[in-house]
Design goal:
By secondary structure, the chain is an alpha+beta fold. It has helices at 11-19, 32-42, 89-110, 121-142, 150-167; strands at residues 2-3, 24-27, 49-56, 59-72, 75-83. Helix content is 45%, strand content 20%. It comes from candidate division MSBL1 archaeon SCGC-AAA259J03.
Length: 181
Amino acid sequence: MFLLDRGFYSVEAIRELKSRETGFIMPAKKTKPVKKICKKFKKGEKPAESNYTVSSTKGEEKVRLLLTEKETENGTEIHPFITNLDIDPDEASENYSWRWRIETNIRELEKFKPFTTSRSMKLRRLYFLVSILFYNLWILTRNGKEHPRGHEFKDWLKIELISFKVLKKGRAKPPPLPTLA
């Protein structure tokens, strides 16, 4: 299942996903027809689930339109989603909420990536894999708790690695590592 943002709300993208028999959930663009359906839903004149056709100059694609209500500071808001899956609106909303967790995790992962100006894809791939390793190590040390934060863990890890290096100073130097050019 793909959790897509509104940027993929197009006949072409929907057609491609359906041709690959790939399940998807994405927020519906609040076009005039969608806004009209949302207003009718809010008044109780429309069900939370309905068949809907996304149209453009490139053609049409049939999808399911799911509407959920969310309480916010500004009152009740209607969140429209489109999907090709057989799920109810609350399930679509719950599944889509994972997208925010994934984006947050990717932002956190970026904190562990070393800076490089190298154009070598081998080195960049290695840095990416090392950052994933450190990120996962950080997640394990947190054990579901809020602390240590990413930057705190990074500082602690630096201190540990420096002290490890100092303790090993008395030993012979290992052979140099091969370069990844």
